[in-house]
Amino acid sequence: MSTTTELSYDISDRSNLHPQEPINLQVVGQAVSASQTTEAKSTKVQGVDENNGPFAEVITAQQAWKDPQINIWRVSAAFLGFLVQGANDACFGPLIPSLESYFKLSYTVVSLVFLSPFIGYVLAAFLSDRIHMLFGQRGVALIGPGCRLLSYVVLSVHPPYPVVLVFLIGAGFGNGLLDAAWNAFVGDLKNANQLLGIIHGFYGLGASLSPIIATTMVTKYGLQWYTFFFVMVGVALLDLALSTLAFWDATGSEFRNYSANSNAAGGRMRAVFKNKVTWLCSLFLLSYVGSEVSIGGWLVVFMLRVRDAAPFASGMTVTGFWLGITVGRVVLGFVTARFGERRSVSAYLLLAMGLELVFWLVPQFYVSAVAVGLLGFFLGPLFPAVVVAATKILPKRMHVGSIGFSTAVGGSGAAVIPFAVGAIAQAKGVQVLQPIILALLAVQFGLWLLLPKIPKSHAE
């Protein structure tokens, strides 16, 4: 049984309010909502949104990663989910030469393994909020890992190439759905910068391990590309089990109870799409994820054919890049929390552009290997920092919709941009990777400068 103190306010006239300034409410009494899994103080605030009419928002005390206790398991499930996603995104780089020879494909056609998940990401971008409203995080925990597991099972039996592409759409949908949901979930917890740094560090860990495993299986033991997906089936099964158990009580009704404007999801999503922060974050993450996965996806081919490296050494260079991302996300997450997202991200991008120039212009294998590892280190914290900035700028009622849409669109960059690199490389050679990456980093820097300032109430 729970009691809720409900206060109504008419805030349709905002002429005397700063657009980013929070409204101070004096609440008489204490509102406590308790369930089997959560205990949080809450206040339900009603008002009028100038774009979308009346809204009702339940403001809950911010949870921590270990309070309530169920969050320990939920955060752990999110960590594992990101590890699987990182392994998924990074595995195709070292597998491209094997795919080329097995199916006798050109650069452009083999690049479709990057493009086909795009359809799944787009579907996830538009369906994430609806799935949350209907089924809650329980639905996400079942659907997302389930789609990935089914895709890996099919790939492990080495079907014809068109079938591979079709089932990669399912993997893309699962990745996009989980990417959106777990970023929004962790981004709303206390110490979000550090936690997002760790969760994205698990993405980097998965992305570091999968090239090692795939490269070793293919180059050292002479196994075919599809044997790697037996490994993915195993971790995807574990992901499905842990996510389902951790989020089983997070139902659609629970989500609706604590979601603003829950009876008007369409109105909330209209507000999300009207907000420029949503689109700036979406474009930033599209460019960022695209550059990250393009480097990881085409680095082996670049090192083999431009730097004349051995196959195993080329595969290890990719591992160095993803290890750099992993360490950067964990270590620089604390730096970002100390100095603030605005200054930190600007500095990281400038350093990344400098390292990309070194990688491009110094034609030595070892210099390239070191430069790309350091490049990964400074790219690492960008994704979590953007998510944290969005949670600070946007009202809470837009978090799931806006961050979910932005991260899903960003995830589609892992499909579109590596495919574009492959198509251009088919005509101009794989050396086009470097100027494309430098241009993408410059775009990210420009988009970051356009993002509104973080309100003082949330400043570091």
From TrEMBL:
GO molecular function: transmembrane transporter activity
Keywords assigned by UniProt, alphabetized: Membrane, Transmembrane, Transmembrane helix, Transport
Entry keyword Protein biosynthesis: no
One Gene Ontology cellular component: endomembrane system
Predominant localisation class: membrane
Name of one Pfam family that matches: MFS_1
Membrane-spanning parts: 105-127, 163-186, 198-219, 225-248, 277-300, 312-335, 347-366, 372-391, 403-426, 432-451
Subcellular location: Endomembrane system
Family: Belongs to the major facilitator superfamily.
The protein, known as: Major facilitator superfamily (MFS) profile domain-containing protein
Organism of origin: Heterodermia speciosa
